[in-house]
Amino acid sequence: MIPQTPNLRSELVDTLSAQIEAGDLKPGERLPTEQAIMEATGVSRTIVREALASLRAKGMITTRQGLGAFVSHDPTPRVFSILSADLESIEEVLQVLELRIGIEAEAVGLAAQRRTAEDLARMTAHLDEMDHAIEAGGYGADEDFAFHRAILTATGNPYYARLFDTFGRAMIPRQWSRLSPMTEAERRRHNARVRKEHRAILAAIETGNARAARTALRQHLGASARRFALLRQRKADV
Q: Is 0.85 topped by the overall pTM?
């Protein structure tokens, strides 16, 4: 029985993935019907369909019109990805931020050493666009994503940007505002802090100071992690 937690879809994905990886569900074998999964786990049809879509996106199952879902003949996930639907809990957000710090802290140091004038112009433009988006009442998530991706591009190592692309815009904390609603005053303070952090990263890259760039990047993502950790604690205390 899947426990009734706020993260039912991920729980079901983990359960089915474990059964596939353990060989309990073999390559080519048909998965139980949606109704059977619902009855076995107690989750809704929507949750079941979202879980199957996630497994399909990971390449672990295939679907056949009118026949149902089947374990792929090569069920090992071929592509690592982080989908927006994967981030349903604060704990998952914190895990993604931890991953980002590990990747981007090294990348930003390389970017500081290798960036070109074109890279700097691109990063500056993205931050300016993010400022405009926030002033217009938005969150600037797309512009934020573009800025961080430009840093990875500036490393001169295309694999960094390709890795980031597999994550998509789900990586940007502004997309997770539903987990941490803010008042208008809090939003203004948050945006001012984020703007300052981004500009500090850019300044360090511009001067070619790899150590300062890594420090600024860690401070930026670390601040987001601390905010969500505090929110997690508040929810645990309720």
A: no
**Nearest C-alpha neighbor of 88 from the set 12, 143, 194:** 12
Q: How many CA atoms lie within 13 Å of 37's alpha carbon, on the beta-carbon side?
A: 24
Judge contact between 83 and 126, C-beta under 8 A: no
Kindly provide the b/e burial profile for residues 36-47, where b requires at least 16 CB atoms within 10 angstroms of the residue's own CB: ebbeebebeeeb
Contact 217, 108 (CB under 8 A): yes
| β-bridge partners, 62 | 70
Antiparallel, parallel or unpaired: β 61-64 and 68-71: antiparallel
Least Cα distance to 3 among 42, 39, 33 occurs for: 42
Cβ contact 235:228 at 8 Å: no
What DSSP designation does 194 have?
H
| 15-62 confidence digits (pLDDT tens) | 898 888 888 888 999 999 999 999 998 999 888 988 888 888 778 888
